[in-house]
Amino acid sequence: MKRKPDYIFIGISVSLLVLGLVILASAGQVIGQEKFNDPFYYLKHQILYGLLPGLIGMFLALKIKYTFWKKISLFFLVISLILLCLVFFPKIGYEFGGAKRWIKIGRISFQPTEIAKLSFIIYLAGIFSKSRKIDSSTIVPFLVVLSILGCLIALQPDIGTLVVFVAVGAIIYFLSGGKISHLIILCLIGSVIGYALIQSAPYRMARLTIFLHPEKDPQGIGYQINQALLAIGSGGLFGRGIGHSLQKWNYIPEPIGDSIFAIAGEELGFIRIILLMGLFLGLTLRGIKIAKNCEDKFGSLLAGGIISWIIIQAFIHMAVVTSLIPFTGIPLPFISYGGSALVVSLVGIGIIGNISKFSSH
To answer: Contact at 8 Å (CB) between 252 and 262?
Structure first.
């Protein structure tokens, strides 16, 4: 039976969105002024290319019954794979900081990996919802698609995003009834591949070394994480106040992206940053409830996969900035600068909102 959408879930999402814009407005002031002579350049860009199309996408996703995505899952996945390949083509792919992660058409650029996250989740929800029992007809396509996506993402390179793909894939497999033993084998294989990727790039090995021995090279490879910890520590209980971060004055790299949680911690302080984390926790719990109470397996797996993607990415970002895990660049959902990430995240929220119409709240 169709009901009203889960307004609590949508309300938490909007709260995160508004708070993210406030944090971004502050974190981007210095580099916006230096690069574009406009302290609010990044905020305006986020609103124009992220918020507005994202809200339109969320509204449409709220209106479209979630079963529609199952019908186009394979087509959507193929388009995503093509886009991931295009980043390696000259004049189409855009390289920044030694990474090929963007497609640029005129003045518009976007990250195909963000689109691939959603298409991957929809595809897996589709194939795993076809039957009650996990067999070769489902596990083989799962492993093949994960391998292809993994190779394309590793070549960019974007190891943080690769971890998100593997983790979300494993969760959807588990939710669909997969065996724990299979997941353990998958984790072991992933660990071997991960170790090989670390060994293949000196900077990755250096990041692991710094994580284990933070006192080494504090002005080199360990500089960003040391400055992030300094920012969070200097925020104290109540923070310096919105707009009063010192670290954003060219002390910390990527203040609007990979390090934005550090800026938030410095300005908001421990108590308010706990409230921010509480919003992510509330979003997760509400999303899990929607997934659990959905009327069919596809909707349940789809909602579970989308909320897993958001919370896993948020956890990795926060854990990296607080030095709980080795450094890897990954944005904080709803908070970090990035139009394509915000658009796809809001579409994902809209899909879960639509699924909630067919779940018991």
So the answer is: yes
CA nearest neighbour of 284 among 16, 1, 3, 2: 16
CA distance 335 to 257: 8
- DSSP assignment of 161-191: HHHHHHHHHHHHHHHTT--HHHHHHHHHHHH
Cα–Cα dist 234/265, whole Å: 9
Residue 325 pLDDT? 81
Q: How far is CA 37 from CA 42, 51, 96, 188, in A?
A: 11, 22, 21, 50
For residue 145, which of 106, 109, 173 has the smallest C-alpha distance?
173
Mean pLDDT, to the nearest integer, of 152-167? 87
Per the listing, tokens 């996969």 go with 305
Q: Is the pLDDT of residue 327 over 80?
A: no
| Token reading at 84 | 């991931």
Please choose, from the candidates 134, 194, 145, the residue with its C-alpha nearest in 3D space to the C-alpha of residue 168. Answer: 145
The whole-number pLDDT of residue 60 equals 97
pLDDT in tens, 73-89: 999 999 999 999 988 88
Q: Which burial class, exposed, middle or buried, applies to 277 when counting CB atoms under 10 A from its CB (0-12, 13-18, 19+)?
A: middle
Q: Which position has the higher pLDDT, 164 or 1?
A: 164
- DSSP structural state of residue 68: H
